[in-house]
Amino acid sequence: MTMTAPIGTVLGSRYEERGPHGPALGQAGLLHLHRDRPRLRGVSVAGVHVGSIAEVILDGDARRVAGFDVRLSEGERRFVPLVAVASLGPSGIELDSALHLVHDVRFYDRTGLPLPALLALPAACRHAVGVSLADVIADLGTGEVVGFELADGTIIARDDVNVSGEAIRLVCDCAA
């Protein structure tokens, strides 16, 4: 049996104070998508391990977590939308049904932005180029990206970042 703490369900208990395994979706809190990757590794359906998370997928503007690119134990690839995740435990995500494993991943390949691709984009402010993006901070309760962490540990609010498919532009207050 997998022990989990819910990050949400699709149905009515979504905003209750407590779900059956811990805090409900609205209580999930923030997660550093890269640094906290060990918590985002396995995929279980009703307590049975079915695969592993290959990538976290964000929407094209990096405003929301769209879901997860999953490799099933049989080697097949699936997509799990964030809204389909019932809970997040120490070893990964839990789904209530295998029906949440979306077979056609082509749409998400075209419109989504994998976390490693986002972290590899060049970032700059008006005074500095070559700023390294280290992590993305998301509220898994809502799916919203709330900020970005730079390599030096500086946290930049999501509203101060413009993400295009080719670069990341930071709004800065640096004195240079």
Note down, in words, how this protein is organized:
This protein has 176 residues and is mostly beta strands. The protein folds into two domains: 12-114, PRC-barrel domain (SH3 type barrels); 117-170, Photosynthetic Reaction Center, subunit H, domain 2 (Photosynthetic Reaction Center, Chain H, domain 2, Alpha-Beta Complex). It is 7% helix and 43% strand. The longest helix has 6 residues, at 106-111. The chain is elongated, with a radius of gyration of 17 Å. It starts with 17 loop residues before the first strand and ends in a 6-residue tail after the last strand. The model is unreliable at 1-27 (pLDDT under 50).
Sum this structure up briefly.
With 176 residues, the chain is mainly beta. The chain has helices at 106-111, 115-120, and strands spanning 18-19, 22-23, 30-32, 42-45, 48-59, 65-72, 77-81, 85-89, 92-95, 112-114, 123-124, 129-131, 133-139, 144-150, 155-157, 161-163, 168-170. It is built from two helices and 17 strands.
